[in-house]
């Protein structure tokens, strides 16, 4: 009797382990917001990246930006935007773990900092943070970090950032709007386009320097930004009937989840679950000051004309997306927070 009970308990324990993780994952990594890491954890992350950027040029680190530059057209303005970047983050995370198994990619939840994006500890000059700005970044964990990718060919240069302000201020998409995009957009490609064209592009545009070029992954901040974009996709996927969605017709051709992720040549279906890649997300911290729900949320700045031209986006579409998101922010959008199946009729033709 005791033996049978033991056997049952063992089987149950085994089953719960197997149920949590596909057998090829030895564990599930949890990615957290950078402010949830200890100083020691941030130092290890920075150190592992610096290790990847050592040796002959182009370094292993440089190659990530060079691929991104070369893939430009297939991974932006395309449904592959989310699957490609998810796979690419896992690729880098595996490299970092080979150097230091305790490292997982942190994310920067910029929606918490929407009203003053660069005026917070993430951009602090202390050695365990990301540093501020400059034509040669000279503070933080990546002070005097040399990278090679430029859009006009490989050339070693110091990492740069140039924060953009409009009328003396910078405003990104805040948590209210981001949450509404996640809650109310029920089809994959509409969600992907709203996220990519609006909030995602605005961060690249506002950080400036290497970040607003196709060599953006030269800046470690790129990975914190895209890890948050990936988390938003994962949040979106948790709603019913969304988890396996993937579609779109970027150049007339109908894509499906059997289509191959550019560069990696693996089916999109393999990227639709974070757990299949052996990671999950910890929830973002709560904002220190929640905007009272009766308050009209801050509206984000418009994406600059220069950025749109430089990255080859369709300006009409970008403005349509921005206007739609303004409607969501004002509460005029058809979707209501918390109404899962409201399925607003999208005003745009995606
Ligand atoms: C990226 O692709 C877009 C669209 O084809 C193009 O307009 C842009 O110049 C490209 N950027 C680079 C750096 O190649
Ligand atoms: C840009 O987008 C608009 C709106 O979706 C569309 O009507 C127009 O044809 C697009 N322009 C180009 C050059 O693709």
From TrEMBL:
SUPFAM superfamilies: Di-copper centre-containing domain
InterPro entries in UniProt: Di-copper_centre_dom_sf (IPR008922), Tyrosinase/Hemocyanin (IPR050316), Tyrosinase_Cu-bd (IPR002227)
Keyword ATP-binding: no
Signal sequence segment: 1-19
PROSITE patterns documented for this protein: TYROSINASE_1, TYROSINASE_2
Coiled coil regions in record: none
Keyword DNA repair: no
Pfam hit, one: Tyrosinase
Example of a GO MF term: oxidoreductase activity
Keywords: Copper, Metal-binding, Signal
Protein's UniProt name: Tyrosinase copper-binding domain-containing protein
Higher taxonomy: Eukaryota, Fungi, Fungi incertae sedis, Zoopagomycota, Kickxellomycotina
């Amino acid at each position: 009797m005791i033996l049978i009970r033991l056997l049952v308990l063992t089987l149950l324990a085994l089953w719960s382990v197997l149920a949590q993780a596909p057998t090829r994952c030895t564990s599930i990594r949890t990615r957290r917001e950078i402010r949830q890491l200890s100083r020691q954890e941030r130092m290890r992350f920075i150190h592992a990246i610096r290790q990847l950027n050592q040796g002959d040029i182009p370094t292993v680190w440089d190659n990530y930006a060079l691929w991104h530059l070369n893939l430009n057209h297939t991974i932006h303005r395309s449904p592959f935007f989310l699957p490609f970047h998810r796979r690419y983050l896992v690729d880098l995370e595996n490299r970092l773990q080979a150097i230091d198994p305790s490292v997982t990619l942190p994310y920067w939840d910029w929606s918490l900092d929407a009203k003053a994006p660069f005026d917070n500890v993430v951009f602090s000059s202390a050695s365990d943070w990301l540093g501020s700005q400059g034509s040669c970044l000279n503070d933080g964990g990546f002070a005097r970090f040399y990278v090679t990718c430029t859009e006009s060919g490989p050339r070693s240069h110091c990492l740069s950032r140039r924060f953009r302000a409009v009328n003396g201020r910078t405003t990104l998409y805040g948590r209210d709007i981001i949450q509404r995009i996640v809650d109310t957009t029920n089809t994959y490609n509409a969600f992907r386009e709203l996220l990519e064209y609006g909030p995602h592009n605005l961060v690249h545009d506002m950080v400036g320097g290497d970040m607003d070029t196709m060599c953006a992954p030269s800046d470690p901040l790129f990975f914190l930004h895209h890890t948050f974009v990936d988390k938003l996709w994962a949040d979106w996927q948790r709603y019913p009937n969304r988890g396996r969605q993937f579609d779109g017709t970027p150049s007339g051709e109908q894509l499906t989840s059997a289509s191959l992720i550019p560069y990696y040549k693996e089916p999109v279906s393999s990227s639709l679950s974070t757990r299949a890649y052996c990671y999950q997300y910890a929830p973002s911290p709560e904002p220190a000051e929640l905007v009272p729900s009766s308050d009209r949320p801050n509206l984000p700045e418009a994406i600059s004309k220069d950025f749109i031209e430089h990255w080859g986006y369709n300006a009409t579409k970008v403005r349509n997306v921005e206007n739609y998101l303004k409607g969501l922010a004002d509460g005029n959008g058809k979707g209501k927070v918390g109404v899962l199946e409201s399925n607003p009729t999208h005003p745009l033709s995606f």
